[in-house]
Design brief:
Layout lengths: L11 H14 L1 H10 L11 H10 L4 H13 L5 H6 L2 H6 L4 H12 L4 H4 L4 H9 L6 H11 L11 H10 L8 H8 L6 H16 L6
């Protein structure tokens, strides 16, 4: 992962450029791309709400996460001050567990300057986020990839990516997080597009959801 901001993904054309580069580098990516078709842009807004949404999504189904998030939005509880002012009962009524309520309050209390992260090197973004309880490396990498549009971020701890690589590269077993991080170095500077391609391929190969 680069120590600079590097290339940003801002449009479908950026994703298509990265996919074309990956297909030229490895025939297996070319074959996967033939099956997936054009890859999704998947950009999201950055800021507190994006990370709160990630906390909400942890260890629950997509449907459950969507329902909880919908209740939080309806109650106006998606900003840091509202989270700090809300009672535990208010948050529980939206479907938040005790642990997720603690994580949400920790995130609100962290006072992260989210606009400043847009111009910080990716490694600094990751380091800033993972000190907050409830925000692990996977969540921080997903934030950098989709909320900040970093083109060269990968999330090797993701089980769907590991399984997709196992199938596409015909491996005997899923690669470990460390092994996949090393493999992904060959896909720089488009590791974020490689992730999109592998998630899309996972969906086709396994007929299951990769990520929300």
């Amino acid at each position: 992962m680069s120590g600079t901001v590097g290339r940003l993904i801002t449009s479908p054309a950026c994703v298509a450029e990265g996919a074309e580069w990956l297909a030229a580098q490895d025939v297996r990516f070319a074959q996967a791309l033939e099956r997936t078709g054009p890859l999704p842009l998947r950009l999201r807004k950055d800021g507190f709400a994006a990370l709160l949404d990630a906390i909400v999504s942890q260890q629950v189904s997509v449907a459950a996460a969507d329902a909880i998030w919908g209740r939080l939005k309806a109650a106006g509880l998606t900003g840091p001050r509202k989270i700090m002012w809300a009672s535990d009962d208010d948050l529980r009524a939206c479907g938040m567990s005790r642990q997720k309520i603690r994580y949400a309050r920790e995130l609100a209390a962290a006072n992260i300057r989210f606009p400043a992260l847009r111009t910080r090197p990716t490694d600094e973004v990751i380091d800033t986020l993972i000190v907050v309880p409830g925000i692990g490396r996977w969540t921080a990498e997903i934030y950098a990839m989709f909320s900040l549009g970093r083109a060269d971020v990968f999330a090797p701890g993701d089980l769907a990516l590991q399984e997709s690589v196992r199938v596409l590269f015909n491996l005997d077993a899923r690669p470990s997080e460390r092994a996949l991080r090393e493999m992904s170095e060959d896909w720089a500077p488009w590791r974020g597009v490689a992730a999109r391609l592998l998630w899309a391929y996972y969906h086709i190969a396994k007929e299951r959801e990769g990520i929300r």
